[in-house]
Each structure stands twice: as C-alpha cells, then as structure tokens.
Amino acid sequence: MLLNEKALRLADHMAATAAALRIAVHTTPNGARVLDCGVAAEGGLHAGLAMARVCLAGQAEVALAPGSWDDIPGPLIQVHSDHPVLACMASQYAGWQVSVGKFFGMGSGPMRAAYGKEELFEHIPGREQTTAAVGVLETSKLPGDEVTAYLAEKLNLPPNKLTLLAAPASSQAGNVQVVARSLETALHKLYELKFDLGQIVSGYGTAPLPPVAGDFLGAIGRTNDAILYGGQVVLWVRADDEQLAEIGPKVPSSSSPDHGAPFADIFERYERDFYRIDPLLFSPAVIVLQNLRSGRCHVFGRIEREILRRSFGLD
Fold this sequence. Notes:
Blueprint: H1 3-16, H2 18-21, E1 24-27, E2 33-36, H3 45-55, E3 61-65, E4 76-81, H4 84-92, E5 96-100, E6 103-108, H5 111-115, E7 133-138, H6 145-155, E8 162-167, H7 172-179, H8 182-192, E9 200-208, H9 216-230, E10 232-237, H10 241-247, H11 263-269, E11 286-291, E12 297-301, H12 305-311
Parallel strand pairs: 2-8, 7-8, 10-11
Antiparallel strand pairs: 1-2, 3-4, 4-9, 5-6, 6-7, 9-10, 11-12
Helix pairs in contact: 1-3, 3-7, 4-8, 9-11, 9-12
C-alpha cells in the first residue's frame, strides 16, 4: 500500500472521530478536506499523536512515554519504526515550504512523496503516483481555496482528492507533532553528512514534550530545544564500525557552532532569519548507533538539561 493510502486511512479515522479528538473537519469551496487540529479548533494530545502518525504515513508508532528526568517534569514523545527512511524522510520531513499569497506553512506528510520534486527523492525510496494525497501543515492559518488549488496543481490531482491537517506549533496538537520528529532529525542529519541511509534498519527516538508556548517564537524555540537538547535517538544499522566512529561525533546537535543556547535566542541572534542558522544544528542531543553487523554500540552527544529548563520556563 502506498504511503498516501496509509495516511488517508488514518486521516479518515481522525475525521470520523473528530469530536473525541476535539478537531474540526472543513471542506473548502473547491472540495479539498481540511482537518483543523489546533488553528481554531481546540485539538489536544490525541490529535497531536494522530497528526504525527499521519505525518509518518503509518510507518511508525508514536506515543506518550513517562518522563525520565526529575528536574524536567512531563512526558516524552516516543517514536519508533522498522521503516524509518520511508516514515521520516519520504513523509515526515518538513521539506515543502507552502507559500501562497499571505499564507505560509511548513508542509510535510506523504503528499511530498506524491510531489516527488525534492532533490532528496533522488537518493531515497518513496516517490509515488497516487490517486489521493495527504499533507500536514504547520501553520497558524487554515488553508483556503488558493492554497489547496496550488497544492492540487503541483500534485496533479483534483482538489477533492487532497486532505490537509493543520495546526500551529503553539497549539497542543502542533506541539506534539513537531516534537515527534526526533528520529527524523537524526536521519536528515545523516543524509546531509552523506551517510548511506540504506544502512539504517530500524530507529527509535524520544524527546521531552515542552509546555505549550503561547506565541510563534516561543513555540518554535521550545519544540526545537526539546530535540536539540533533549532528543535521544537509537539507530540499528549495518555498517562498518570505523565509518560509524568517524561520522558519529558529527551527528548530535553539539557538533554545531550554534549549539549551546535556547533556540529562541539563536533565532533572535540571526535577526529571525531561519536560513542563517547553521543547518547542521538540527539534530538530536544524543545519537546511539547499534551495529547489527558487529554487535558494537557507538554513543555520541549529551543532554543539556539546564538549557531545557531555561527554554521550558522551569527556572
């Protein structure tokens, strides 16, 4: 089954249980379906977990897990997959900047695989032709006809074959679905370091769920910090130990010169220009590479609890 088909089943279930999830289902005038998970609708934890599963196209499990640090109260967001490249890179990665008129949203989910124009798809599996597409938008504004028409044209589909889930990171659901990207950030960092992702067999990641921030800057700060300074990822790989020992120190966020301050401070330092931030900062705090070929375990990086406490407003 295609990624978009699996995601569509999950989205259909969300729509059927909208009241329980505290989400709202809208149909745009041109026929596209929009699931409001936190823009105007209340949403919640379950809506966020459901969004994350859709974003991963049903190729990974996502759940709340007990927190492991006494000084940082709250749960962890846990994700694990036996198909991490498809789940994270072909689907979950927010690789589509959707900018139409005054609308802007970071686009992820399997609609990216249906579009397939990102350079990334020249190096990974997942590109697909589909009769319906599902996407997730991190945005504070619901997409209307102009946005859905744009996406439908890019996907070569009629608008009524498009389903979009929307929530800002400053909502409960958006907070959850962004923090569910710990595993994805590790894979993307390895991709940027020219590691052969075909050597990755399975993956597991956790990151602390921060308090929901009430504004855009606070939200992107806390959700990024959760992964940069609290994310822990385990990858089961088949590779040479020498290769893992060489690349491992380059994977954690601590390998970046921008590491060491709350993300909101870094963002302000660069005058809120996201693209001036070192792109290699975006990775988990700790990476564990378990080599199925040799049985050896390689551990790199460190948790930064003081930065997390400051970012989460716990000091």
